[in-house]
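[stage:ingest] chain + small molecule (adenosine-5'-[phenylalaninyl-phosphate])
[stage:ingest] validated
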Amino acid sequence: MIKIINKIRIDFDSRLDSISDAKQLEQIRVEFLGKKGQLQELMQGLRNASPDEKPKLGKDINLLKQHVENKLNSKSACFGAKPSKKSSEIFDTTLPGRKELTGTLHPITQIMEEITSIFFGLGFQVEEGPEIETDYYNFEALNIPKDHPARDMQDTFYIEDQTVLRTHTSPVQIHVMEKREPPLRIIAPGKVYRCDSDVSHTPMFHQIEGLMVDESISFSHLKGIMNIFLREVFGKDTKIRFRPSYFPFTCPSAEVDIECVMCNGKGCRVCSQTGWLEILGAGMVDPAVFRSVNYDPEKWTGFAFGLGIERIAMLKFEINDIRLFFENDIRFLKQF
Ligand code: FA5
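[stage:predict] done
[stage:export] tokens:
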């Protein structure tokens, strides 16, 4: 039987060398490996071998089978035939690599993280609050009673009579002061909602609230912190001004402008020819707000501020339409 095995191997090798197309290759495969092929016959012949011979003969037949399979596979590759399972497992090191697509953080997230880390460095802790708020937290506790004209300053989305999508991050001030005692130094980044949409307004946008409460906090602390923060974001030569303003929850109140980064204060379309751009609202916490959280206004003073992240991102990245941030156009987002 060993002689037959050797003969089949020699016969197979010479037949394989002489073929010239895939059809002939398939004929040989059937002839040697098919159900009625020569190797199958050999296996059947094994039944008649003596028990002593069987293990060695079985091993030789398996080696021959492997030899036939390997050679058929290599030959089939020459004819462009579909590789069999085994050859498809071969790793082709000559193929070019597949490039992994990497994403980046959304520009709003980048600015949010930058601002958060600046305040973190100034000793502020990060706090969060709910986006669905009660009328009490969004308005009343912030000294904006029912029918107060200041409610018109923010176009509110009402969910129910007493439930709103928060219009600003200022309610987080109340949540924090209700559960903690001064001194406090917190910022609260998050989404806010207003019924508003044009090139500089979106119905959902992001604010960062800031609150510092301690004994003897004055307006100069607010100015100092704002100066450090804005110069860190826009560069150390950035000019800043405080303009008197009105918020029911701060007194005195101010809006903070920076010199227009587009025209360096000369006046352009973006800054409506004024040379200045409004960045945030701020002021000293109104005693009425302290009273609503049971803080003694005779003992504690503090400042608060609220800034729009999208506005800062627009100025930093020189983007003239706020809506671009939320269209999810990959060509736009890829630039950051
Ligand atoms: C407020 O929301 C006050 N809560 C800020 C504040 C906090 C004042 C603490 C005093 C003390 P205002 O409505 O001005 O204020 O909004 C603050 C900033 O949010 C604006 O300066 C602007 O940058 C941004 N903003 C307002 N409305 C929109 C909008 N629809 N889309 C994008 N950004 C907006």
